[in-house]
Amino acid sequence: MEALLQSLIEVECPSIAVVGDGDGRFLVELLKSEQDFKIDYIDCSPGMLRVAQKRAAHDSRVIWRCEKFERGSQKSYDAIVCHFVLDGFGCEHRMSFVGAISASLNPNGILLVSDFDSRAHRKAAALVVCMQWFFHAFAGVPFVEFSKPDEILIEHEMTKIGENEWWKGAIFSQIWKM
Fold first, then answer.
1. Is the pLDDT of residue 87 over 80?
2. Side by side, which strands form the sheet with 62-66?
3. Phi, psi (5° rounding) for residue 97?
4. Residue 146 pLDDT grade (very low, low, confident, very high; cuts 50, 70, 90)
5. What is the DSSP secondary structure assignment for residue 87, as one 8-state letter?
6. Alpha helices, DSSP H only, in 32-174?
7. Half-sphere exposure of residue 173, counting CA atoms within 13 Å on the CB side?
8. Cβ distance 83 to 77 under 8 Å?
9. 136 in Cβ contact with 143 (< 8 Å)
10. DSSP state of 21
């Protein structure tokens, strides 16, 4: 979060797309910042959107959009945030989704991505299987093998500028710049 805020501090009224944040935990933390953001909160689940709206109250900086982001946006953004979204796509679909993200970022735009790396260790693989069962049952998300998206992001001419890992690499967060 701090790296994202630092990256946007010089941008006047930065535009941010928060894609697939589910219950809105990240959004609430983002709104605690004193910066004057314009935020599009995009989730394809009406139920999760309602939960996030309750959690974030009614902040005038947020526009709520119940839709898929898979084809990108008519708008362009200074930053796009995707937490635990990319693991819901197979390899080919993931490539087109990252292409949509890339096309929706302003020059020098920032991508913050967090997800699971099932290849980190056995417990990580078990965690990912459990999470995939949950999301498959409740949101129809397909079962896919997932690891860090570095190669795909590099193919879209992005440069990694930061990374953190937790639980021996099973959970990661990366920040990329166009």
1. no
2. 62-66, 38-43, 15-19, 77-83, 105-116, 171-177, 159-166
3. -65, -45
4. low
5. G
6. 46-56, 91-104, 122-139, 150-155
7. 12
8. no
9. yes
10. -
CA-to-CA distance for 26 and 166, rounded, in angstroms?
17
The one-letter amino acid code at 131 reads M
> Which SS3 state, helix, strand or coil, does residue 2 take?
helix
pLDDT digits (tens, 9 = 90+) for 96-145: 889 999 999 999 899 999 888 777 788 877 887 787 787 777 766 676 66
Collapsing DSSP states into helix, strand and coil, what is residue 26? helix
**Residue position matching structure tokens 């735009």:** 109
Assess contact for 153 and 98: CB atoms under 8 A.
Answer: yes
d(CA 84, CA 166): 14
